[in-house]
Amino acid sequence: MVVDTEQHRPEQGETVAIRIHADTDKYNRVMPDTTTAPFFIARVAPGDQQCDAWADQTLLSALEAGGIAWPSSCRNGTCRTCIGHLTEGQVRYEIEWPGLSADEKVQGCVLPCVAFAASDLTLQPGSL
123, exposed or middle or buried, with CB in 10 Å at 0-12, 13-18, 19+? Predict the structure, then answer.
């Protein structure tokens, strides 16, 4: 079920449209969609560092927000400074060509600046 509604924010003088994906229970109360996790856990190996990786946040942003130092430069998938190796889990990309060859993707290389967590994952710095 998709519920379209509007929310008025008088302090900002605007009305915004909101779309809620939800189901209803037997009493027709709107229940939130829980089929997609709001965030995943990103672990950095070796070591015990981990952070929350929100599904709508790049992996690099999640690492930085979690206080984990990770090399970066361009933030658009071209310089490869942030390249890492995914040892567990999955990522997704919103751009068709994220700066990795097909072979690198098969080997588990990821570019955290343009990758989004699609599951809990473990990442190692550097390429293979």
Answer: buried
- Same domain? For 60 and 94 the reply is yes
Judge if 22 and 59 occupy the same domain: no
Q: How far is CA 74 from CA 62, 63, 69, 71, in A?
A: 16, 16, 16, 10
* Domain count along the chain: 2
Domain limits at 106? 39-125
**Structure confidence at residue 96 (pLDDT):** 81
- Contact indicator for 54, 39 with CB cutoff of 8 Å: yes
Residue 57 has pLDDT above 90, yes or no: yes
Residues shown for the chain: 128
